[in-house]
Amino acid sequence: MTRGWWHERQVWTLDTVGRRVDVTAGLIRDGGQLVVALGIGQGPTAILRGAALADLVTNLRDAQDDVVNRTHRGRS
What we know:
Number of domains: 1
Structural class: alpha+beta
Largest sheet: 4 strands, antiparallel
Number of helices: 1
Helix content: 25-40%
């Protein structure tokens, strides 16, 4: 599924019950301004501006680090 955004990028993964779902990032216009958008499956579109975009990237990296650290300590 594409959303028709500029520079659209998709990652296919699984949701919490094992169904295939796409995570889409791209560029859209909001009020005439070009912004980053994020969509999961066929759900709503999130608009990410400034600090929100940076915070999301940080949170994803931190979550990945949490998984790695827990795995190395023998916890999953």
